[in-house]
Amino acid sequence: MIFYYSGCGNSKFIATSIAEELNDNLVFIPEAQRNNQYEYNLSEGEMLGFVYPIYSWRPPHLVEEFVEKLVVNGKPSYVWTAVTCGDNVGETEKIFRKELNDRGLELNAAYCFKMPNTYVNMMGMTVDREEVANEKNAKAKEKLPKVIEMIKSKTAFSDMIKGVFPRFKSNVIGSGFYKWASDEPFFSTDACISCGMCTLVCPLQNITLEEGRPKWHGNCNTCDACYHYCPKNAIQYGKKTKGKGQYHFV
């Protein structure tokens, strides 16, 4: 069984690719939360995986909330996580390992895929240049078969890219991220064509169309899917996204 979360498609690609090779079941975490589904039964010998993007050098808040409520009946034969990041992950592995331990689960392996940047809601942060994004995706695709074989063989392993000052990034910046991150700055410009794409791609179903324009309802992880998938680049985050490019996994 593989639990996953994805906004702009990087982590979805990793999760679906691994699931197909393992012939494993995928559970989309936001959907499970909407259905209040936190209890799962594992068959004998079944493995347990978690795939998600890195937000501010730690697991996304909704992933942490899901794990806090997770009940697993049966002992998994191997527990692994695969994360996607633009550059590095800080102390994500340490944080996630503790969260799993609190649920009676032991993390056996942690795999890291460096993929194109998607977070653009701060000054100085933007998408990668096209050639950089293409190179990251090519290397991620090249790495996937090796990771899949390691999962199949239940190898104890970690290749997390911590970066510099990991403790400060994860525990100070990361812990404070959701205290100021919100969907209030999002708005649509006159370029909006009322296509509704933003309502379809929002993993938390946080957006509706009102009088032909998107409206955000406060339940947001700032994954920026609405911004990146908009066919007219009509969605902006205050003044911080003006002139920045778009990216989503294709």
Walkthrough of the structure:
Strand 7, helix 5 and strand 8 form a beta-alpha-beta unit. The protein has 8 helices and 12 strands. Helix content is 34%, strand content 19%. The chain is α/β, with parallel strands linked by helices and 250 residues long. The protein starts with a strand and ends in a 13-residue tail after the last strand.
Distance between the termini: 24 Å
- The percentage of residues in β strands lies in 15-25%
> Quick one: CATH class of the largest domain?
Alpha Beta
Strand order of the largest sheet: 2-1-4-6-7-8
Shape: globular
- The averaged pLDDT comes out at 96
Rg calculated over all Cα atoms? 18 Å
Number of domains: 2
Percent helix, as a range, is 25-40%
Provide key terms for this protein.
alpha/beta, 250 residues, two-stranded parallel sheet, Rossmann fold, Alpha-Beta Plaits, 2 domains, 8 helices, six-stranded parallel β-sheet, 19% strand, 12 strands
Topology (SSEs and partners):
Blueprint: E1 2-4, H1 10-22, E2 26-28, H2 29-34, E3 39-41, E4 48-53, H3 61-69, E5 71-73, E6 79-85, H4 92-101, E7 109-114, H5 130-152, E8 157-158, H6 166-180, E9 186-188, H7 197-201, E10 207-210, E11 213-216, H8 225-229, E12 235-237
Parallel strand pairs: 1-2, 1-4, 3-5, 4-6, 6-7, 7-8
Antiparallel strand pairs: 9-12, 10-11
Quick summary:
With 250 residues, the protein is of the alpha/beta class.
